[in-house]
Structure formats: C-alpha cells, structure tokens
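Quick one: structure for this chain?
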Amino acid sequence: MLPVRFSFSFNPYEKRYTMSENKHLTLPQSIIERLKQNEIVARKFHETEISILTILNFQDFIEKLLSEISSKFSVPYTWISIIEESSISKYLHNLQNSKLIETSTAFLSKADFSEITRNRLKPLLANENIERFKAIIPEAAKYDIGSIAIAPITLDGEIVGSFNQADQNLCRFEPGIDTSLLEQLALKVSLCLSNVTAHEQLKFLAFHDPLTGLLNRGVMERILEREFQRSKRYHIDLTVLFLDLDDFKSINDNFGHDNGDLALCHTAKCMNLLKRESDIVARFAGDEFVVILPSTNINQAESYIHRVKQKLASAPLYSGTTPFYVQLSYGIASIFEKGMDSSAILLKAADKKLYQAKHNKEAKNSSPK
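Got it. Here's what it folds into:
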C-alpha cells in the first residue's frame, strides 16, 4: 500500500476518538476502517441534504430535517430554536396539527439567543452547565441532556435561530471536537430555509393581508359561506361582526401613516388575542375588519367586542411621547335574524348596523352639550 498523508479528528456522529497525524505513514487497518466510517457519515449527511432540498413548506421541512438526523445518526434529541423577532417566526407560529413541531420547536427572544450563542455563526458545543441553555430548549420537551450542539441558521445573512442536537452522552458533543459536517449541514439548512421562506411568503400573501397578517377579504368570504351553510344545515348560531376604527383619518393626519398602520396592527392583534380558536378575524378593507363567530349568539358577540374595546382602552399607542388610543364602532348580525338567506346578506346586515352605529355616535358627539 502506498504511503498516504492523513489528518483526522473526532467525529460526533461516529462516537469514537481518533488521532491527528501529519506524517507519511502506511495506514493500518483500523484507520482505514475509520475512514470508511467517515465516508458513511458524509454520505448520510448528503442524503439528508438531498431529502430537504426540494421541500417548500415549513412543516414538512422541519419534520423531515429532524426525523432524518435523528434516525440516520441515532441522535436522541433534535429540535430547532427560532428567534421571536425573526422574519420566519410568524409562519412557524401559524403551523397547526404537527405534534413533532409543537414538541420540537423553541421560540426565544433575540436577546436570550444572543446571550447563549454570543452571535457566533459556528456551532456551539457544550457538556457542562446545561441549565444555561434552558431558553433554547422547547418547553414541552423532557430532555436528559449530557452534551449539546447548537448550529446557528441564517436567512438572508441574518441569524434567525438554530438547529440543535443533544445526547445523554457527555462526550457526544464535547467542546473541541470536529464540527465541519455540522457546519456544512447548517449552511445547507439555511439555504433550503431561504427557498422555503420565499415560497411560504407567496402562499401567505395569497390568503392574508400583508400589513396585519389577518386573513384577507376573499378568504373571509369563502369561510363565511362555509360557516353559513353549516349553520343552516345544523340550526346553530352564527354571528358576524363588522367594525372599523373611529376617526382613523385623524390618526393618519395627526400622527402620520406609520402610526395609522400601527393602529391597524394593534387592533388586529387585540382581536386575535381575545378570540377563540374557531373564530375568524379578517381585514375587509382600509380600517374595516370582519369577525366570524361560529356557534355564537348576539349577546356572546357583544361580550367579545366589549373585551376588545376594553383591551384597546387599556393599551395606548405612542407617537414619540404622545399617547393616542384606538376606538371602534361595530355592527352585529345573526343568522337567526329575519331575511338572512345568504352569507352575503348576513355580511351586508352587519355592515348596515356598523353604519348606523357610526351615524349615532357622530350625531351624539355633534349634539349641543
């Protein structure tokens, strides 16, 4: 056998210690076997990269990545951590019906993530003081961690979170071992994440209002028709709220359009925060919103909008140091009112009641004191 120059180090996916040499030696059989093992590991990483390369939605991407690493390399704990302020956080929060993602995704602040990783791009390995990584571990997870590997992932040059692995074994991800394959995987994950995000953004904009993130008018109308037919079929309550912001023009005029946008987003957030999972909040147009409340009567709808108004009244917005408040007018229509023969008529009835409520409010405000 010809002399071969070699340089070799510990590989966490092989679970073996190796040596490093820089001499012309004839390789013994044990080293040859070790190199073969490394080739197997590299091939498994390549297979993982190929398997995630063509996926274009977050749920399948994350599930495939975690399951591939866990099964191919016998890593007991794999998960991702996402920075709340990142551009992909809202998409992942909207994922539903994925038990794996629920238990294998952690959300944390940018400040907490920076404190843990020190904004480094290279993988971080640790097998001591594991408690300091608590913020990066999913709340639902019950991991018995001896050592951990944290590989930051980026989107368009910005760190958005990390791909993480852990083992009970203290030596599996011991500081100082070779992380080149993990760095390579993190890079490929980041590239794939960019493709997934671009595709998901296009899909999101097809169904959502880009400013508030609420469902758009077209989607709302389709959902309302579905709920209308279901309500008629099973003789159950269905109520629609049509609302808009009072004096929205004055907010734009006095505080600027950026604060006008802030007022719209603030209103959307409050409505979403107080709704049930089955309720639908949508932006209709301009400063108008629609809320679809299945299995809800008028009194219950009044209670909901009352809580929203209380929330808005207790949470001022600020233009510099100047506070301002968002106030609402609304109209409510129920499917059990006379003449509600279609979803369009139901929506129009709520709109008419909103118009009447605004007219009454303006008349009251303009009347002599």
